[in-house]
Amino acid sequence: MIVLAAIRADACAQAVLTTATAVADLFDAKLAALHVRQPHGSSPTDLAIALGAPLREVTGSAIDEIIEAASDPEVAALVLGAGGGRRRRDRHPAGHTAIEVITRVGKPVAVVSSHAQPQPQLARILVPLEGTSESSRALADTITLADRRQLEIVVLHVHSPATVPAFADHEPHATAAWEHEFLSRHIAIPHTRVSLERRLGVPADHTIAVAREQHVDLIMLAWGQNLSPGHARVVSRTLSRSDIPLLLVPAGDAVTPTSSL
Q1: Are the beta carbons of 194 and 186 closer than 8 angstroms?
Q2: Domain 2-112 coded CATH 3.40.50.620
Q3: CATH of 124-244, one of 3.10.20.30, 3.40.50.620, 3.30.465.10, 3.30.428.10
């Protein structure tokens, strides 16, 4: 299996390749790089070689070439830069190429800000869970891979005022039982390296804050690949504001990153 890094000859190439190295280790896959040449553009060949990533260079539409390359059955996941939209409002949370790719590639895609300073090896990941079986199923295989790599997994669940357990502030034992039951329902692996963070409010407001508080190396989100108004608020907010790489896992059919699952 392969983790494919789509790199441009810009400041984001280093962060994309470093993130791809970490994701490849997570997926137990080899690393490869793709560069879509542009007229009069330079090539990131030396950077790819320095990181040990075989580089394939092609010409044409960046969107079409990246999507075609990612469709190869050997590609387990894709990593690319967020593009120029990092500080835009949620309606445009990333550059045009990144938006087109993440909404059309039905595999895990990691998106990396040009300001990110990723680690070449993951130690701790953040997994926001809304508490639905669909999102839990979509993330199950990748969470299992993280557990096999002995990564720390921080689960985030954000309550609305209507869903806060009535006993939350008064009965510690009942609260602990609720948290254990929540993790047991949504996380199939042993909970040895799993912790649960709970917040109250709007999920999109808490994801980045908790990621920074917990010093995570990667945020992992299940989503429906729909960025139209009223959809994917957490994904949009995280894409537009986070310096931490974001791994997006399609929440349709379950995604199996490696043949061993």
Answers
A1: no
A2: yes
A3: 3.40.50.620
**Tens digits of per-residue pLDDT, 8-65?**
877 788 999 999 999 999 999 999 999 998 776 666 777 777 667 888 989 999 999 9
Whole-angstrom distance, CA of residue 139 vs CA of residue 126: 12
Rounded to 10 deg, the angle between the 203-213 and 233-241 helix axes is 40
Residue 108 near residue 247 (C-beta atoms within 8 A): yes
Q: Which residues of 43-74 are buried (b: 16+ CB within 10 A; e: fewer)?
A: ebeebbeebebebeeeeeebbebbbebbeeee
**Distance in angstroms (rounded) separating the CA atoms of residues 2 and 222:** 21
Q: CATH 3.40.50.620 in the chain, residues? A: 2-112, 124-244
Amino acid identity at 111:
V
pTM score, whole prediction: 0.89
Question: CA-based Rg of the chain, rounded to a whole angstrom?
Answer: 18
